[in-house]
Fold this sequence. Notes:
- This protein is α/β, with parallel strands linked by helices.
- It has two domains: 3-94 and 202-213, 3-Layer(aba) Sandwich (Rossmann fold), CATH 3.40.50; 97-199, 3-Layer(aba) Sandwich (Rossmann fold), CATH 3.40.50.
- The chain is built from nine helices and eight strands.
- The protein has a four-stranded parallel sheet with strand order 2-1-3-4, sandwiched between helices. Strands 6-5-7-8 form a four-stranded parallel sheet, sandwiched between helices.
Amino acid sequence: MNTLIVINPNSSRTVTDGIDTAIEPLRSFGIPIRCLTLAEGPPSIESQRQADRTIAPMLDFAEAQKDAAGYVIACFGDPGLHALRDQTGRPVVGIQEAAVMTALTLGHRFGVISILQPSIPRHLRAFGAMGVLDRLAGDRALGLGVAELADPGKSLDAMIATGKRLRDEDGADVLIMGCAGMASYREPLQEATGLPVVEPTQAAVSMALGQIQLNLSHKPQRTDHA
């Protein structure tokens, strides 16, 4: 049990490859990281229904990874986060939760760049449950699906324009990329907006590595002297 398992709950290997590239700098910590694609997942996760349907196969998939030291659920919306925490005592980090926690250390009001308008209500439910709505500047949709994010010609300009609206109209002083499929655009988005930009999978992997290294978990393991 020595590997951090990053699970992409949709079936897009392109998204998984983007995640794998984004977290490359974090491999220097010395803990192996393996990025996996849930073959049973939908091609993209753009609604609550699609997200919820990934939970059961994802739990089985996670359980099958016998070398797992911890898990990252790489979908903004964190489907199955609490179910997987119920299933295992190993660290489990969701990219949405980690992104928000990281953003709160980088600015006072965070803005979220989402893919489609229907994604926003489920984000708001999660932010409400986390108790951070008073720190949310805004959540704006690009109007692009997950598959379209792979095309820089369609997505990067839209992300920059949306980020600037969150900054100038909504008062955001830190931005969160609201989909794992946006991973490759963090640096140009940060440069264009002049704001810190949180890529959620990077945030979650950083958090999970720290928890593994420090033997932290939502279910602390008993020791002989406990």
